[in-house]
Design brief:
alpha/beta, Arc Repressor Mutant, subunit A, LysR_subst-bd, 3 domains, 11 strands, nine-stranded mixed sheet, two-stranded antiparallel ribbon
Length: 304
C-alpha cells in the first residue's frame, strides 16, 4: 500500500462518488475506480458499498478512515516542514465562509496575508450554508454560531454587530422611523424565512418586524436591495462603508451582537501551517471589523 492509494480512498470517502473524487484529484473516474479496486484487493475487503446515492463506506472502510486521515496529516506535516520559505506559509488553503464575511471582510484580510506569504494560494468559498469539513470541502470554515457536534476544533475569531439600515433617499421619501412601532408601514428586507440555515441569522425575531417584503438567502443581495432604496433591513455594520448612502437607523434601539467562529477538523490541530494561518486570519478579521464598524458609525453621524 502507498500513500497515493490512501489519498484516492479519502477522496472517494469525502465525495461519495468516483466522479467527484476524480474532479478533486484531476483523474478520470475509471482510474479512480481501478485504484479503489486495487486497494480493496490489497486489504481483501470491500471498502465501499455502492448504491444509487453513491459510494458509502463499508465497515472495513470505516475502520480504515482514521488511519488514512492520520497518514494524510503526517504527509502534510512533512510538506510543511520541508517546503516553508523563511518561515512563510506556502501551498493552497481553502476557507468556507458565509457570504457577508466572504464579501466584505475576507478579500482585504486575505490580500494582506497573501502579500506577506507569496507562496500561499488562498481560496474563498462564499456560500450561505454550513460547510462539511469531514468531506474536506474546505480546510477551515467560518461560522456564525459555535457547532456543538462533530470532531472539530472551534475558536472564536471576533465579535461583530448588525444594525437596521436604509438608504438616505429611501428615508427622505418614506414615513419617519422614530421607534420600532413605525416599522409596520415600511417594506422590510431580509432572509427568506425557510432558507435561514442558522438561528443566528433570524434577525427580525429581535426587531419586532413581522413580515419581509423583499428577501434573499444572500446578505450581499439584501444590502444591494437596501442600497437601491427598496426598504429597511438588518445589515452588518462592517458592510455599510461599502454601500454609499446607506446609514444606520434606530441605532440606539436596534443593534444585534454576533460572533464569527473558526472551525477546523480535529485532526488539523497538529498542523503548524493551519494554526499560523488561523492566527493571521483571526487578527486580520478583528482589525478589519473594528476599522469598518468605526467607519459605519462615522458615516451615520455625517448623515445626521
Amino acid at each position: 500500500m502507498d500513500w497515493d492509494d490512501l489519498r484516492i480512498f479519502l477522496a472517494v470517502a469525502r465525495a461519495e462518488s468516483l466522479s467527484g473524487a476524480g474532479r478533486s484529484l484531476k483523474l478520470d473516474a475509471a482510474t479512480v475506480g481501478r485504484r479503489v479496486s486495487r486497494l480493496e484487493e490489497a486489504f481483501g475487503s470491500k471498502l465501499f458499498v455502492k448504491s444509487p446515492q453513491g459510494y458509502a463506506l463499508s465497515e472495513a472502510g470505516d475502520r480504515l478512515l482514521p488511519h488514512a486521515e492520520a497518514a494524510e496529516q503526517a504527509f502534510a506535516g512533512a510538506e510543511e516542514e520541508l517546503s516553508g520559505i523563511a518561515g512563510q506559509l506556502t501551498g493552497q488553503l481553502r476557507i468556507g465562509a458565509p457570504d457577508g464575511c466572504a464579501n466584505y471582510l475576507l478579500p482585504q484580510v486575505c490580500a494582506k496575508i497573501a502579500a506577506e506569504n507569496p507562496g500561499l494560494e488562498i481560496q474563498i468559498i462564499a456560500l450561505p450554508r454550513v460547510f462539511n469539513l469531514s468531506k474536506r470541502e474546505a480546510d477551515m470554515a467560518i461560522a456564525v454560531s459555535r457547532p456543538t457536534a462533530g470532531r472539530l476544533t472551534v475558536q472564536k475569531l471576533t465579535d461583530y454587530h448588525l444594525s437596521l439600515a436604509a438608504h438616505r433617499d429611501y428615508l427622505a421619501n418614506a414615513p419617519p422611523v422614530r421607534d420600532k412601532s413605525d416599522l409596520s408601514v415600511h417594506r422590510m428586507i431580509g432572509y427568506i424565512p425557510d432558507m435561514i440555515f442558522d438561528k443566528e441569522l433570524d434577525y427580525f425575531a429581535e426587531t419586532g418586524a413581522e413580515m419581509v417584503g423583499l428577501a434573499s438567502n444572500s446578505a450581499s443581495v439584501q444590502m444591494r436591495m437596501i442600497e437601491a432604496g427598496a426598504g429597511l433591513g438588518i445589515v452588518h455594520d462592517f458592510a455599510i462603508p461599502f454601500a454609499p448612502g446607506v446609514v444606520r437607523v434606530l441605532g440606539d434601539e436596534i443593534r444585534l451582537d454576533r460572533a464569527f467562529w473558526l472551525i477546523r477538523h480535529a485532526d488539523d490541530r497538529r498542523s503548524e501551517r493551519l494554526t499560523r494561518f488561523a492566527e493571521a486570519l483571526g487578527q486580520g478579521l478583528r482589525d478589519e471589523v473594528a476599522r469598518l464598524e468605526r467607519a459605519a458609525f462615522e458615516t451615520t453621524l455625517a448623515g445626521l
